[in-house]
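quick one
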Amino acid sequence: MKYKDLPAWSRMAADWGENYFATIRRRPVRSSAKPGEFLSKLPAAAPEKPDDMHTIFEDFERMVPDGMTHWQHPRFFAYFSANAAPASILAEQLANYIAANCMLWQTSPAATELETRMVDWFRDSLGLPGHFRGVIHDSATVANLCAVLTMREKALNWDGVANGISGQRQPRIYATSENHSSIDKAARIAGIGSANLVRVSTDDERSMRPESLRHAIEADLAAGLVPAGVVLCVGGTSTGAVDGIAPVAAVAENFGLNIHVDAAWAGAAMICDEFRRHWEGIEQVDSIVINPHKWIGAQFDCSVQFLANPDSQIRTVGLRPDYLSTSSVGQITNFNEWTIPLGRRFRALKLWFVFRAYGVEGLREMIRNHVSWVRELQSRFDSDPEFEVLTTCPFGLFTFRLSGSDDSADEKTRQLLERVNNGGQIYLTQTTIGGRFAIRMTAGQFECTKADVEAVYPVVKEAAENLRAQ
Ligand code: PLP
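structure w/ pyridoxal-5'-phosphate:
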């Protein structure tokens, strides 16, 4: 296949995409593939001679979609959505044609400057103060790692990057168990170690107790350890837990600690004024991550990290070898110095298309709808004695299970979830709350409607009836 053949095949892909979206509702949301099923259909070795493009395309159509879980299905209620707005899909197609490596300003001037402006647009729509600047990473996992590395180095006065961390006094990071596992991963990769990720206790709302944080820091100082920073969550993955930023900042400030806020999912909701009270004090933090690829519709991968002072992070993860040096230093930004990988995709384009195609008001309306529909659904489960709602959250995520506190309710809820997902009409996932198995429900797909969210209750109810009857 040559570049000259690409337009015809791109049109084929667009037609395929049209049909995919037109028929997506007929597909089971979660793939029913068995482990190894797809692999067994693939030849063991790459072809020596080129395959005909028609055959390749036919094989794709015949084999791939049925082997996938459909994240853009409007009834995908699992994990968090990886929302792909149509305008974002189009922007990705264009970025694919250019296929630039946006590692330096010089290798991608428009992409770099668009990134700067998109981060600023996003910051302002979220109501964040103008001193925050930012960068687009691939994932919140990388943003969290950068934040944890920066905390470590600030606390060690950059002696870790210079001399390694063995032989240093032990840095300590503070977070609750509501944080995403990428914080645990960051502690491991940063050489801090899981044992030095201190789990601060939470209150009844699953928010960090500022007094417990203070005690933990004081105990560590007394033991000769080095408190480095606090990671807070606004919309934790399991239940949507929200830490109180202002009260924690009041403690952290006393000890000069960095604060990073992981708002990968729920941060997007802050484009709506009414949710902002849930991150009061945000102007005091050092770093925030929000994934437009979760809720805003700029599809995976697109994770924005806001930084109060990018210099600390650049000093930690940035390098400028001779072979990457360019002119215009001082007037330009080389975003690879703000993050871990050198090579970078052109991610700002989809954010640009999304903001312009829907307007911030359009995105607000989508988020408000998702949240209010999920709340209505939650009250249906709440008023049915067969179910118990275990947790709620301000951003449209609740957990529930079959009523009953014994082990059999755990097992029955597990079976219920399996039955629901095998049915293919909706897709929900699970978590554990205080040792009890629970089903999570959240909505976020771009074309999800009220009727889609309402469908969850009858589907679950019917599955529960069938389970009882078996
Ligand atoms: N932080 C939170 C709160 C999350 O919910 C997730 C994923 O769901 C992550 C971080 C990791 O996100 P990513 O897939 O962008 O690394």
